[in-house]
Amino acid sequence: MTQAPASHFYACTPFTWGTTTDERDLPALMKIMDLDKVPYALWYLPVPSETHYEIKFYAPQVEGALYMGTMGGKKKRKGEKK
User: Fold this and answer.
1) In what helix (H) or strand (E) does residue 34 lie, and over which residues does it extend?
2) CA atoms of 54 and 25, how far apart (whole Å)
3) Cα 19 to Cα 13: distance, rounded to the nearest angstrom
4) Strand ordering across the sheet containing 17-19
5) How close are the terminal C-alpha atoms of the chain, in Å?
6) What are phi and psi of 79, to 5 degrees?
7) Which end of the chain, N or C, is less packed with Cβ atoms under 10 Å?
8) What pTM was computed for the model?
9) pLDDT at 79
10) pLDDT tens for each residue of 30-61
11) Where are the domains of the chain?
């Protein structure tokens, strides 16, 4: 998914968070979030990444914010190799 110039993605877990920027696109953000191997929430925000906004219970408080779902956090199944 490409993003409009005046928008960005926000991802978070209880331990960390990150956003897309001019230097970091969505695939790069998801790769960073996947390093923790825990599920993370992904949001699309229709405001520039420089915008300051409040976060309540891991959710950005931005009008028009779109929850994209829970991503990552794939656990190994019993008997599965790395």
Assistant:
1) helix 26-34
2) 22
3) 12
4) 17-19, 8-12, 40-45, 66-71
5) 28
6) 85, -10
7) C
8) 0.82
9) 62
10) 999 999 999 999 999 999 999 999 999 999 99
11) 8-71
Integer Cα distance of 32 and 27 in angstroms: 9
Bridge partners of residue 55, in order along the sequence: 60
- Do 57 and 14 form a contact (C-beta atoms < 8 A)? no
Whether pLDDT at 77 is above 90: no
Both structure tokens of 6? 């005046």
Place of tokens 């019993």: 78
**3-class SS at 31?**
helix
Query: Which tokens belong to 34?
Result: 């996947």
Question: Do 67 and 43 meet the contact criterion of CB atoms below 8 Å apart?
Answer: yes
Phi, psi of 59 (to 5 degrees): -110, 130
**Residue 21 CB-density burial (10 A; 0-12 exposed, 13-18 middle, 19+ buried):** middle
